[in-house]
Amino acid sequence: MAVQHSLRQRLLVSMAAGFAIILVSIAIGIWSYARDAANHSYDRLLSGAAFAILERTLVTPNGPGVEIPYSALEMIGLAESDRVFYRIFAADGTTLTGSESLPVPDQYRPTDQPVFFDTRYSGEDVRFLLQGRFLAGAGYGDWVVVQIGQTRIARDAFAREMMINAIALLLFVTVIGLGFVWFGINRALSPLIGIERQLRHREPTDFSQILITPPREVASLTRSINGLILRHKKSLDNAQAFIADVAHQTRTSLGALHGLLESASRQPDAEQRQVRIAQAEEQAERTIRLTNQLLSHAMIIHRADNTPLERKVLIDVIRAVFGDIIRDYLKYDTDFSIESDGEPDTHTYVMLDEIGIREALRNLIDNAIKHGAAPHKIDIVVRSSGSHCHLIVDDNGPGIEGAKHASVLQRFSSLSTGTGLGLAIVKAVADRHGADLNLAQSPNGGLRVEMVFPVVGGAEE
Amino acid sequence: MTMPRGNILSACMRVLIAIFVAMGASVWGTQASARVQVHVWSATDTSAVEPFIKVFEARYPDIDVVYSEFNTSELYQVVMYNIDNPKMEADVIISPAMDLQVKLVNEGLAYRFEPENADAIPGWAQWRNELYGFSFEPAALVYNKKAFAGLKNPVSHTDLSNLVRDNPELFSGKIGTYNIRQSGIGYFFATQDAIQNNQTSRLTESFGRAGAKLYCCSSEILDRIATGELVLGYNVIGSYAIAAAEKNPDIGVYFLRDYTITMSRTAFVPKTSQAKYQAQLFIDFLLSRDGQQVLADNSSLIPINQNVETVLTPHLENIPVFRVKLGIGLLGFQDELKKNSFLEDWESSILWSGGQR
């Protein structure tokens, strides 16, 4: 048996995988958003400080000057744990005040728009702002630029906190979502569980239908199970009827034999006794035949369940089988003929059970000899017609009326003195091969039995 | 002479073992007897910290504290000058000038660590897990009690400038305060005054008119108050003032009622320290309840832990303390241009009429 799958597990795993993909992509999005938001917030502090400082730049008789307002640094200090670096320089690069070594991008040209950039400075990641102001007056006219740098500690903490909160919320939603999935799966699977429960708690003799209104997805499954139950019940019924029939037939047959023997032993007249014994012998023979046929029938049914069919040419099989059984009929005055209308070189293959075919043929010949009068004439014809292959057995016995064709195929439905099993066996063999069985009037005046086999694989070799 | 084989082998073994034992002993020996030196560079009167250092050394017998005293500005300059020098000997740097300490830490000089006892220190007195304040020191007015007899104590800074203006004969040449160009802590107090009070320049001018004298250190002012050479000392470190007043009954200590600037002496471990672990132990003990108690009981420093009873505790209800918060804001007056213009303004006020440097 293959590895068992759990629908529930499959659904849950695929849902969890889906959630994980969504979670990861959202997390990536949130991270970049959180970083932007953190930069945005803290950049405003830097901008505010830069404005406050630029406002206090002025032209003095000695050139540009600046008085850093106390509030500017206080403002940046709102990011409590961050270090701050600043420098105010003239357009020619002369530092007015602050740390001279602060990095400035090569392509920077003074502008009154703030320019932000991140870089490594003094052993930490630092966010820098550059903003200029054009100063004019008293013989001076040029740019003054303020540069402020702040380490990223507060920004990163802010972004991390946003990130953690968002992820926590997402995880919460995911868990809730998976909870719903679990609930949904269980609800969806509950009809299956209902079916399982109904079947498990069932008595062995209970063949009632599964009583459940299935959802569309499992309706056909339920129908199939119900069909199976029905077929199983029918076959069990058949088997029971068969066993009852067999018991009845055997008992009747043995009862008759016993009756004959008893009456023979009580018969004082030797001649009469001889007649009774002959009758008993006949009855014994019939009983043996009955038993053989019952076993043969049982064997056919059994083989149908256990032995695979083999791909063979029908006429070859017929010839071989006929060779086996012809010896049993040598004592009867019988004229046999076997003919095949197919080309000798083309082989038409049919899926066959050789033993089954033998039993069918034997029963047909038995019937013909038993019901007909000598001299017997039995013609066996194999005819192929495209997709089908016909096996026809004609005899010159009394034949069977058309109205009774259906009923004679039933078990124990002999029209006269037969066991009533012969044609039932033929029918079982036909069923086993998926072949149609037709009864008709034979051109010889007797019964024609025709089995129509489906051809497989076309011609070969 | 021949020796049995076994004897030769065992003799070799014995020598080898002896060598191993000797090596082991020397390794263990150095470990056992190694006394680690912790160099404390500090702008604090040696006498004020000595008792604490003794208790610390008693508690950690393996640690030797080597204490060097500096003026606040000198200390800043030495450390700044050695900013990239891995051979700088300092393991702990202590200064009352919070702005200079913040500037050093902002340069990335400090080693980051979390002392076990950091929680006991209020937030305004620590920064970045690098700089830790351990004392609570309001700026005090110090006066000579005899000379002040009969005068009404000023309530505010404005009262004080009026008092000086109204009593020129008493105060002339007898007011002492820091030379803020030389003293980092003096500059720190002066700038905090300027931030707190827009009338500060008036007070400075009245000091200038009264011919105030400028000193490098609290102790020099206190000594002169004691002798009566000075009548009034302005912005003297409160802990030193209270200690001096306890020794000398002529010295009075007073805290103005409008605001009293309060600083905390701060310590950090420089990144270049060769004995970071021991330096951390030093600072951790400084912040601990026990260490704070030692400061309260055995030294003139006033501990920052408010649960420790100090000489200041009875005054605290009346003093409107303005706690200066450690942080980037303190860099404002450390800007070179700003510092120069502040000093120029201040000097032009204080030296207005023949004041002395």
Automatic annotation (TrEMBL), chain A:
<dbReference type="InterPro" id="IPR036097">
    <property type="entry name" value="HisK_dim/P_sf"/>
</dbReference>
<dbReference type="Pfam" id="PF02518">
    <property type="entry name" value="HATPase_c"/>
</dbReference>
<keyword id="KW-0418">Kinase</keyword>
<keyword id="KW-0812">Transmembrane</keyword>
<dbReference type="InterPro" id="IPR050428">
    <property type="entry name" value="TCS_sensor_his_kinase"/>
</dbReference>
<dbReference type="GO" id="GO:0005886">
    <property type="term" value="C:plasma membrane"/>
</dbReference>
<feature type="transmembrane region" description="Helical">
    <location>
        <begin position="162"/>
        <end position="185"/>
    </location>
</feature>
<dbReference type="Pfam" id="PF00512">
    <property type="entry name" value="HisKA"/>
</dbReference>
<dbReference type="InterPro" id="IPR003661">
    <property type="entry name" value="HisK_dim/P_dom"/>
</dbReference>
<keyword id="KW-0808">Transferase</keyword>
<dbReference type="InterPro" id="IPR036890">
    <property type="entry name" value="HATPase_C_sf"/>
</dbReference>
<keyword id="KW-0597">Phosphoprotein</keyword>
<dbReference type="InterPro" id="IPR005467">
    <property type="entry name" value="His_kinase_dom"/>
</dbReference>
<dbReference type="InterPro" id="IPR013727">
    <property type="entry name" value="2CSK_N"/>
</dbReference>
<keyword id="KW-1133">Transmembrane helix</keyword>
<dbReference type="InterPro" id="IPR004358">
    <property type="entry name" value="Sig_transdc_His_kin-like_C"/>
</dbReference>
<keyword id="KW-0472">Membrane</keyword>
<dbReference type="GO" id="GO:0000155">
    <property type="term" value="F:phosphorelay sensor kinase activity"/>
</dbReference>
<feature type="transmembrane region" description="Helical">
    <location>
        <begin position="12"/>
        <end position="34"/>
    </location>
</feature>
<protein>
    <recommendedName>
        <fullName>histidine kinase</fullName>
        <ecNumber>2.7.13.3</ecNumber>
    </recommendedName>
</protein>
<feature type="domain" description="Histidine kinase">
    <location>
        <begin position="245"/>
        <end position="457"/>
    </location>
</feature>
<dbReference type="Pfam" id="PF08521">
    <property type="entry name" value="2CSK_N"/>
</dbReference>
From TrEMBL, chain B:
<dbReference type="Pfam" id="PF13416">
    <property type="entry name" value="SBP_bac_8"/>
</dbReference>
<dbReference type="InterPro" id="IPR006059">
    <property type="entry name" value="SBP"/>
</dbReference>
<keyword id="KW-0732">Signal</keyword>
<protein>
    <submittedName>
        <fullName>ABC transporter substrate-binding protein</fullName>
    </submittedName>
</protein>
